[in-house]
Structures are given as C-alpha cells and as structure tokens.
Design goal:
mainly alpha, Serine Threonine Protein Phosphatase 5, Tetratricopeptide repeat, 0% strand
Length: 136
C-alpha cells in the first residue's frame, strides 16, 4: 500500500522490489541510474529499510557512497530503529562506516545505534572508528 493509502499495482511493486534488490546486490550503476532518473533516493520498503540501509547491511560501500552523493539521508532508521551506520558497523565495513560518518551519520542514533551494535557484537575496531578513530 502506498503512503497515501492507495494500493500499488503489481508492476509498481515488482519495480520497487527490483530497486531494493539492486541495493542488496550492490548494483550501483543500475540503482543510481534510476535515482538519477527520479527514483526517490530515500525509497523505503515495508520494514522501513531504505536503499541506503540495505546497501550498508549487505556490505556494498560503493553503493552506500553513491546513494549518499545523491542525497540519501544517513539519519533514517528502519522500523526496528536501525540505521545504515548500525548496519555497516554490524557488517564491519570500515569504508561504508567512514562514508556514513563523513555524511553526518550519528553513531549514537537509533534504538539499536551503531555504538550499541559495536559493543553488543564485540567489534572493537568498529567502536574505535565510530568514536573518532580512522582505519590505519
């Protein structure tokens, strides 16, 4: 269902699923071509995951950087309170974490923040990066 309460047709739903698959798969060129053509860069699925969150969670720092360059909001959280930064932290992607921090992502934001993620999963390298360190 669309945000205005109307039902989306099958073709539109299939297209949206393909866009989320592009984010999950790290298909940067395909995804950014659609964004450049007018696809909302902060498109959100039924769980609140944005293209940026999915790219970060599935370990695609180039896709993360490309979406950020096109205005993706690093502060958006999904329905579980997880941000792209928390997802990148969980995946131990220093490159994506750095890109998100440089874009203004807050390591303490969200019900399941990036800092909490680093602490819970015992990721000292990610915790150091989130607290201001940069990879060597």
């Amino acid at each position: 269902m669309a945000s205005d309460g109307t039902e989306l047709d099958e073709e539109t739903l299939a297209f949206a699923h393909r866009m989320f698959d592009h984010a999950r798969g790290g298909h940067t060129e395909e995804l950014t071509a659609y964004v450049d053509a007018g696809l909302p860069v902060n498109l959100t699925n039924d769980k609140g995951d944005t293209l940026l969150i999915l790219a970060a969670y599935h370990g695609h720092p180039a896709t993360v950087a490309a979406l950020l360059a096109r205005g993706a909001d690093p502060a958006r959280a999904n329905d579980r309170g997880q941000t792209a930064l928390a997802a990148a932290t969980f995946r131990r992607s220093a490159e994506a974490v750095t890109a998100l921090l440089d874009a203004g992502a807050d390591p303490a934001q969200g019900a399941k923040s990036a800092i909490a993620t680093a602490q819970v999963f015992e990721l000292p390298d990610m915790l150091e990066l989130l607290q201001g360190g940069r990879p060597g």
